[in-house]
Amino acid sequence: MDPDRELVTAAAAGSREAFDELVRRHRAAIVTLVGVLTGGRDGADDLAQEVFVRAWRSLPGFRGESTFRTWLHRVAVNLVRTSQVREGRMRRLFAWPSPEETFDPPAPGEPIDASLARREAIQRALASLPAELRVPVTLRDVQGLEYKEIASLLKVPIGTVESRIFRARQRLKPLLEPLWKTNRNS
Amino acid sequence: MEDEQELVAAVLRSMPPADADGGFVARVNARIDAAPGWLGLADFRAWTLGLAPAACALALVAVFWQAPSSASAPALAPASASASAPASAVFSPASSTDWQKDVSADALLEAALAPEGKQP
User: Fold this and answer.
1) Which of A26, A146, A164, A172 to probe by mutation at the B interface, max B CB count within 10 Å?
2) DSSP characters for B60-86?
3) Which of A30, A54, B24, B72 satisfies CB 3.0 to 4.6 Å to B20 for a cystine?
4) Domain layout of chain A by residue ranges
C-alpha cells in the first residue's frame, strides 16, 4: 500500500496543493540522494528541484506499478545519469579536467559526530565508489529501498543488486571505519 | 564478514538527511510555472510535437483531396482542356497526315496548327 496514493491521485488530477505536500514529504530524501549521486557538487539542489519538476510533468503517466517513492527515486537516478553523461561530453569537448573523487578520511580529532561533518564524510566515501556500486548501495543503505525495488529501478537482476551492494560495502569499510568507531562509542 | 557488512550499512543508515530549506517547495513551483522563454523557441522537440497535429491534418486533407480528383480526372480532362487551352496545345495524333511517312514537314505543321475539325 502506497502511503502517498491519495496525494498522487489528487496531484495527477492537477492539484498543486497535493503536489506541494508530496514535495515536502520527499524533498530531504531526494536532495540527499542527488547530493550523494553527484558527489555533493554544486548544482545538486538544482537537480533535486528538476527531479520534482519532471515528476510533476510525468505524473499523469504514473500508473502506480511501484510506490510513488520508488518512482521518484527512478526519476532522480535517471536525471542524474543524464546530467552526468551531458557533463562528461562537455568535459571531453572542452578538455575540462575531471573532478577528483578521492577520499580523505576524517582526522582523529575531527568532530565527525557533528551532523554536517558526518554527512560530508559519508558523502565523500560514497563519491569514491564507481557509479555502478554507488547507486545501489545508496538506494539500499541511505534511502532504505528494498532489493526488489532497486532491481526494478535499475533494471538489473536482484542477484546483481545484492553483489554490487556487497562489493560496495567492502570498499567502504576502511573508509567508514572511523565513523563506526564513533557509532560504537556513542 | 556479515558483521562488517552490517556495520557499514549501519553507518550509511545514520547519514543525516540533507537540509532542504523552506524555500525548496517555492523554487520547485517557480520552475513549474516558468515560461520556457526564448530558449524554448529553439527547442525542436517542442516544435515537432506542436506542429504534429497540423501536419497530420494537412496530410489527411491532401489524401482526401487527391482521391476524388484522381477518380474524376479522366471525365473532366477533355472538357477542361478544350475550354482553357489554345487549339494548338490540343494536338491530336488522330489526323491522317500524322501517320503518313512521306508527308512534308510543312504539311505536318499545318495539320498540327489547324483548328479542330478543319484538319485535312
Assistant:
1) A172
2) HHHHHHHHHHHHHHHHHHHHHHHHHS-
3) B24
4) 1-97, 100-186
Spatial distance between the Cα atoms of A50 and B28, rounded to a whole number of angstroms = 7
Q: Residue A122's closest CA among A133, A138, A100, A139?
A: A138
Give the mean pLDDT of A2-20: 92
B contacts of A31 (beta carbons < 8 Å): 17-20, 24
Please say whether the beta carbons of A34 and B24 come within 8 A.
no
What ipTM score was computed for the predicted complex, to two decimals? 0.77
Within 8 A of A53 by CB-CB distance, chain B residues are 28, 31-32
Scanning B34-53 for CB atoms below 8 A from A yields none
Residue B81 has pLDDT above 50, yes or no: no
Instruction: In whole angstroms, give the CA distance from residue B120 to residue B106.
Output: 13
Tens of pLDDT, residues B94-107: 556 556 667 777 88
